[in-house]
Amino acid sequence: MEPIGFKINSQIKWKHGSIQAIELQKINDNVTNEPGYYKPEIRRFKGFRSQLRIFRCIFTGQVDRVPIEPGIYQSGNPDEKSPIIVTANYEFTYIKVMRDLKGRDAWVLCVDSNGINVWCAARGNDFGNKQLLEVIEATGIKNITKKKTLLLPQLSAGGIAIPQLPKNSEKFPFRVRYGPVWSKSIPQFLDENPAQKPDRMKLAKFTLYHRIRAGVTHISFLIRKIFILPLIALVLLFSLLTWFNKLWWVGELSLWIITANMVVALLFPFSRFTRKFMFKGIFFGIINIILLGGLSFLIHKNIYYVLWQLGFYFWVTFFSVMSFSGYSMATSPREIQEEYPIFNLTNKILIVLSIVLLTLGFLFTILI
Description:
By secondary structure, the chain is α/β, with parallel strands linked by helices. The protein folds into three domains: about 1-35, no CATH class; about 35-200, 3-Layer(aba) Sandwich (Rossmann fold), CATH 3.40.50; about 210-365, no CATH class. It has eleven helices and seven strands. The protein has helices at about 50-60, 90-100, 120-125, 130-140, 185-190, 200, 210-240, 250-265, 275-300, 305-325, 335-365; strands at about 5-15, 20-25, 70-75, 85-90, 105-110, 150, 175-180. The strands form two sheets. It has a five-stranded mixed sheet, sandwiched between helices. Strands 1-2 form a two-stranded antiparallel ribbon. The longest helix is centred in the last third of the chain and has 35 residues, at about 335-365.
């Protein structure tokens, strides 16, 4: 509010912030709310601190919204003829784009994607026509550049409906073009300006490197959002019962969760025989029953203990594979929505069964 001459005296929120009552006070009569106020301060994207911000996004599962101020940022020293690169206001995305531009003169226009990365924001209605038109109007970028082409990230295509954008409009005098799928290709794309993008610039291949990073991020997500409280509860329960010599079991469960997810990430290409993540879950569930069961037997030398745990090995993999769908580049929201009802029912049955068998196995083969 301050950039347009107001300060907030009081604020009340309802419905998780979707409804708000705000009392404003005018603090500067000389400031207007004309387009052009949507210009944040320069934000660092190099150095150790910026790298820590990237690690925060990767190692916390990318489930937290990490926004920066939307608006116009500058790479190098852009002028009225410099290209306009449009991206999200997710901090990781901003840092990556600015680094990949390598100081090239360009306007970097960050839409208000609610602090969500481009792909997820576009699939969740946070990076669409509304947000694009808003940032164009709020920044007044049409008044500071003669460039009439917006270079959008390719993965925003799921949210941007080009036919529905204004045409030959004074408020939106731009044409839209989709750039490369990876920001590292932007400099080459700007230099070559191809009429049609080559495959290397439009195919998002899910390579081993991407799968490992997705696996690490997905494990962080699952532990933070799903498993951390049950694991802590087990530690507290064992401590209250003075079963301190049994705390290793909690660590073992954590190890199986991590191992199962990394197996999915590393071996994901072997599941290309189907697009159904339910079937992928069954496929990897069987693989992890064999793998984790074998490892567990080598550790404990107790076949009965292993048999009791098989339900958990299968469930944690089955559940994780469906959750991994959002990281995989191998599905669409529509496909997942079609699968979700049967997955939800199957998952509830499996989790109850696995917890019962896990508990009984622990009681009968460890305590007795």
